[in-house]
Amino acid sequence: MTATIIDGKAIAEELRARVAAEVARVSAAHRLVPGIAVVQVGHNPASEVYVRSKTRQVAAAGMRSFDHRLPEDVREAELLALLARLNTDAAVHGILVQLPLPAQIDAQKVIDAIDPAKDVDGFHPLNVGRLATGMPVMIPCTPLGCMMLVNRVRPSLAGLDAVVIGRSNVVGRPLLHLLLAESATVTIAHSKTHDLPALCRRMDLLFAAIGQPALVKADWIKPGATVIDVGINRIAAADGKTHIVGDVDFAQARDIAGAITPVPGGVGPMTIACLLVNTLRAACVISHLPAPAV
Ligand code: NDP
């Protein structure tokens, strides 16, 4: 069997086009231009690439982007003061602080300081709690993108067995709640899980959010299963170049899975597209407008 390749790049492009159309509609009808503030501390080459791409895509969607770069040695109080200003800035509907933060800054304190209504990452404890209790909420971008991808090939997840490998607050834990909300039967696995290959082989849906290149092998996968690979691992190849690979051994897995996301070109492009979705939704909620059609 050769798996259906879930083309995250194309799906993200479609989603961005729908966001842009809705942004054009709300700005014409209500003079509302959604705006997102991106706060970056210090200099991290991976973050730089991500932030540049984010800024470009925000502009292409017709939204405003406010970039704030703070020095590596910035004091926590200064960052918190900036967030307080952004929380009350009427042009800013979404606030995103690029993680990780330097050691002198308490990341949780920073997340707690963001107005939950502008928390487009969905990391504020209030939003985490709302997601866990099944309330309407700002859903973290990467898990939201994963759900959109899986729903492309499996419109109903009811009764399916799902495993999420990884229990981070950014990916694994939010995915648990999103899958439960769609009535899948969910197992969360992590580094202490016994016999992970055997566990995975029973699963209709496999989400890998581990950070270990090609850890998931073909013989971990149930024939016909849907595999969503969140991993982004940079490895030095024999040609001296850096390559990006996922957490799943794609070349092998595609012969056994029913559907699979590639890396790159799977979950990655969905993350920024979902950030645009969240910013547009936040702008509508804050402005007391009906939810946008994305
Ligand atoms: P974390 O490092 O926070 O979490 C990794 C998880 O994997 C942990 O729960 C850990 O278990 C588990 N794990 C590690 N090794 C093993 C193993 N050998 N067997 C089973 N479980 C293991 O990572 P993130 O959740 O932040 O990210 C995961 C991956 O997703 C990374 O490659 C990251 O780059 C990528 N990512 C991609 C995004 C995108 O836009 N596509 C966005 C965010 C992340 P334990 O808890 O026991 O330590």
Overall description:
By secondary structure, the protein is α/β, with parallel strands linked by helices. It has 2 domains: 29-115, Leucine Dehydrogenase, chain A, domain 1 (Rossmann fold, 3-Layer(aba) Sandwich); 141-269, NAD(P)-binding Rossmann-like Domain (Rossmann fold). Helix content is 41%, strand content 16%. It contains 10 helices and 11 strands. It has helices at 8-30, 45-60, 76-88, 107-113, 125-132, 141-153, 172-181, 196-201, 250-253, 267-286; strands spanning 4-5, 35-41, 64-70, 94-97, 161-165, 185-189, 205-208, 226-229, 233-236, 242-245, 259-260. Strand 5 (161-165), helix 7 (172-181) and strand 6 (185-189) form a beta-alpha-beta unit. Helix 1 (8-30) runs parallel beside helix 10 and helix 6 (141-153) packs across helix 7. The longest helix has 23 residues, at 8-30. The radius of gyration is 19 Å and the shape is globular. The mean pLDDT is 96. NADPH dihydro-nicotinamide-adenine-dinucleotide phosphate (NDP) binds next to helix 10.
Bound molecules: NADPH dihydro-nicotinamide-adenine-dinucleotide phosphate
Please count the helical segments.
10
CATH superfamily of the largest domain: NAD(P)-binding Rossmann-like Domain
CATH class of the largest domain: Alpha Beta
User: Which segments are poorly predicted (pLDDT under 50) over 5 or more consecutive residues?
Assistant: none
Question: What is the CATH architecture annotation of the largest domain?
Answer: 3-Layer(aba) Sandwich
What is the residue-averaged pLDDT? 96
| Helix-strand sequence | EHEHEHEHHHEHEHEEEEHEH
Described by strand count, sense and barrel closure, the largest sheet is:
6 strands, parallel
Annotation, overall tally of beta strands: 11
Could you name the CATH topology of the largest domain?
A: Rossmann fold
